[in-house]
Amino acid sequence: MKAEFHNNINNIAKNQWQALEKSACPFMHYAFFKALEDSASITAETGWQPHHLTLSANNKINAVLPLYIKQHSWGEYVFDWDWAQAYQNHNLDYYPKLVSTIPVTPIPSEKLLSDSGDYLELMKVLIEYCQQNKLNSWHLLFIPEISLVDQEKLPDDIYLRHTVQFHWFNRQYQSFDHFLSSFTARKRKNTLKERRSIAQQNVEVTQFTGKEITKKHLDYFYLTYQLTYLKKGHQPHLSYAFFQQIFQTLPDNILLIIASREDNYIACSLFFFDKKNLYGRYWGCSESVKNLHFELCYYQGIEFCIENKLAMFNPGTQGEHKIQRGFEAVLTYSYHWIKNENFKTPIKNYCQQERAQLKRYQQQCLASLPFKQG
Predict the structure, then answer these.
(1) Which long-range contacts (CB under 8 A, 24 or more apart) does 305-310 make?
(2) Which residue among 1, 101, 199, 309 is buried most deeply as judged by most CB within 10 Å?
């Protein structure tokens, strides 16, 4: 196998990338990564230098791994700021590091596009590459759990980390009311009250998919997308050109929900979907309305899943408020390797303690779900 690293996705043929992509996840489409780079949203200047790995034999690409050389830890959602601070306290450089992920998109999915899906061999390639170059660590974020058999083969200095996300699962619900019938009476009453309040505030909600989405819709969405970041004192990660491009190249995977009052747009939420799953990504508003966030980001998504027979809804990271609305705590899996020998044991211990803590937290969250017992 010949390993090559590419600083531009355009150096990898689209047909070879897509031929290896077995999942329907829209975020792993060539078009998604191309839009990130074409729009200059993800570049060396923004701290995300593309460095995609291909493995080939006989001039044929057999595997692709999206990779980035990172100069910071923004947009990853598996937080290692404490590690970086520890390095700084010892006058050591934590960056640059090598990261495999979907930029600013913490979606658990297959990251290694190949027929074999052999992460163990891939890890050996990454370790060797970091050791031969000025790269202080590598990180595989939000990938599937490595099998128990392969876990036993992992070197001692590759560490597993968890995060907790809240996902909704479609248990063959026939309608939103059917879903709510699984709630306790008090929780069902609270949810119905939240939903009724939207109409009582004279708000209308409309769903748009594919080619129904117009430039006017896009312009309003991007306005609220910017406002969401600016309210927190941050600059948006993604440019208008990025969304403009994916609305054109991935129209069959996009759901845009817009709330209006007296024919004026007041809020919206953007989702992606495939044949099995719905993924909530962005929310923004130009007018504050009670319970509207819950309606646009959760209840509308659940209804869309039920109507289209989608199995799972991942509404995005964090948010314990999702539990009482029927979203269940799940663990995600990320694997990490660092070069510095003096930090291996402390970071290994950190990861072990963190995993135990998050497993306990997951169980606490599951015990707080609104469903009837049994």
Answers:
(1) 305/168, 305/170, 305/278, 306/170, 306/173, 306/174, 306/175, 306/176, 306/178, 306/179, 308/273, 309/170, 310/170, 310/273, 310/275, 310/276, 310/277, 310/278
(2) 101
